[in-house]
Amino acid sequence: MVRKTPAPPWFGEERRARTLKLLREKGRVEVLDLARMMGVSEHTIRRDLLDLQAQGALHKTHGGAVSLDTARLDFAGRADVMADAKQAIGRAGAALIEPGQTVIIDAGSTSLGLARALTVRPVTVITNSLDVAALFDRDPGVQLVLTGGTWHTQARALWGPAAREMLQQCRADWAVPGACSVDLAMGITVTDEADAATKRAMIGAAARTMVLADHSKQNNVSPFVVGRWREVHTLVSDRAWPEVQALGVRVHVAPD
Questions:
Q1: Does residue 108 sit in helix, strand or coil?
Q2: Which of 15, 114, 189, 205 has the fewest CB atoms nearer than 10 Å to its CB?
Q3: CA 256, CA 11: separation in Å to the nearest integer?
Q4: Would the pLDDT of 25 be above 90?
């Protein structure tokens, strides 16, 4: 019986190149899968991921890594990217909402962070997110309104004509639409047309629009336009963006 000789472990440069290729194709990788594929220890793979993160090539998560092209990721993948920054941004955004106001909160990981930090009462929350709604469903200080619409599992959002028609009947102090990408020239963009249409309806229903976007979304463009900077009152981010501020947008930098 001929025994099969195990393949030699991959060299470091080979491992890192393959990891980046898989990230481009899939958006995320797992430490255990990479270790088995390349014949090295999980410790070695984690060290590779830390090196690549230091180079700005990916974002390391518990058990793996995700691509910095966050627009391509599903809800769970996006939630892993810049998690601490998103929590800080959410808290800073929530601090801008005053008692008695009405806020439209979109589905999304950073918007969910704002909802978790929203402690002012009374407040009216209009949302297309069941995750956001679940935070307030038993809160007597919150008037909770769901948009309706068609449920999209990956985005964890209600979209479509029913959601847009309902939003057209609303008037809010703030709209907080999610953003896949933010760009100085193109404004706020997302990857799905139905999502973009729902977000535009949110903006149309509100006196002011607040965009929450960590720096990994800056200087990127997705296919469908949500709004231009002239439609945005406030940007909350983890880094200053003087060029956007020069356009008349109030830029709040979330404290660490």
A1: coil
A2: 205
A3: 38
A4: no
Q: How far apart are the first and last CA of the chain?
A: 62
**3-class SS of residue 63:** coil
Which pLDDT belongs to residue 92?
98
Residue given tokens 């899939």 in the structure block: 26
Whether residue 5 is predicted with pLDDT greater than 70 in this model: the reply is: no
Between the alpha carbon of residue 194 and those of residues 51, 148, 224, the distances in Å are: 38, 14, 9
CA separation, residue 195 to residues 50, 106, 157 (Å): 34, 10, 9
Distance of CA 180 to the CA centre of its chain: 6
- Quick one: which of 129, 122, 128 has its CA closest to 97? 122
- 8-state DSSP, 96: T
Q: Is 2 exposed, middle or buried (0-12, 13-18, 19+ CB in 10 A)?
A: exposed
Q: Are 10 and 18 in contact (CB under 8 A)?
A: yes
- Give percent above pLDDT 90 in the chain: 71
pTM tops 0.85, yes or no: no
